[in-house]
């Protein structure tokens, strides 16, 4: 991938932004300069608003995911097929992307950047993240043979560190020392917030469980960073076109998962067996969350996604107090404080960088 070209474009954008900041407070020489200044400020503000909007949407949608998953259970278990639900999530994301493209074609016409037809050289990169996510999701079924649900949530925080490391290695993006410290604090804060009386069992996790947790973290981090790389490889390419191809391959791999895991159940009970209104809402939530993730990667980066999902985890716990009578522990308040400090340090480190 042409990372050098992407990096040069980022440098040009930063240079333009620095020129705008430097010229603030200085007299303008003419109306032409005034128009340039207004256009530059408007562009920067527009990008900041779009980045903030998609990040906020991802946080809200992610915070409600776990709640909908819990509500979708009956008598403590899923009556519907999880693999069919995942397939429908990918299908819905694909349909929403196609609907957005249709609207764009109607309003703006078909251009080179929003044209759905594309070359194999551009499309052949999309099966890789789809396959990585499929393997990670399958590993989730096997890791519970070695850890319980609370222990899994704690081990899942390894994704934070793996994302930061792979973000630096693959995308060649620099993080300041303060940002690295904030990243470690974020991981520690999320882990602390999830501690309970049985958390010591995590240290007793068998070697196989630790290996699976580390592999899952690496797969998740690599899939996220790789997806960001292919989405940003062609910045002018419409995000809905990129999403469409990404979700098409996601549908294909999830169809394979249905054949491997739930073929007999689907054939005997039906594709939609056990579905309810909550299940439908959960699928809709997952679909919108997936689109929000891709937009965050397009207009922000994986680091923003990590912080967004971490804050969403805390919001989920707070909402669970009112919905399920969940009791917040001292560890949760301490972890929430650490996460808040991490978010603040990351913003400070970004300004210094």
TrEMBL record:
Highest taxon of source: Eukaryota
Location(s), subcellular:
Membrane
Biased amino acid composition, Basic and acidic residues: 1-24
- The principal location of this protein is membrane
User: Which UniProt keyword terms apply here?
Assistant: Membrane, Transmembrane, Transmembrane helix
Gene Ontology terms for molecular function: pyrimidine nucleotide-sugar transmembrane transporter activity
Q: Name any GO cellular component annotation.
A: Golgi membrane
What protein name does the entry list?
CMP-sialic acid transporter 4
Q: Does the keyword Cell membrane apply?
A: no
Against Pfam families, the record matches this protein to: Nuc_sug_transp (PF04142)
Membrane topology designation: Multi-pass membrane protein
Q: Which InterPro entries match?
A: Nuc_sug_transpt
Q: Where is this region: Disordered?
A: 1-32
Species: Olea europaea subsp. europaea
Positions of transmembrane segments:
53-72, 178-195, 207-231, 243-260, 272-294, 306-324, 330-348
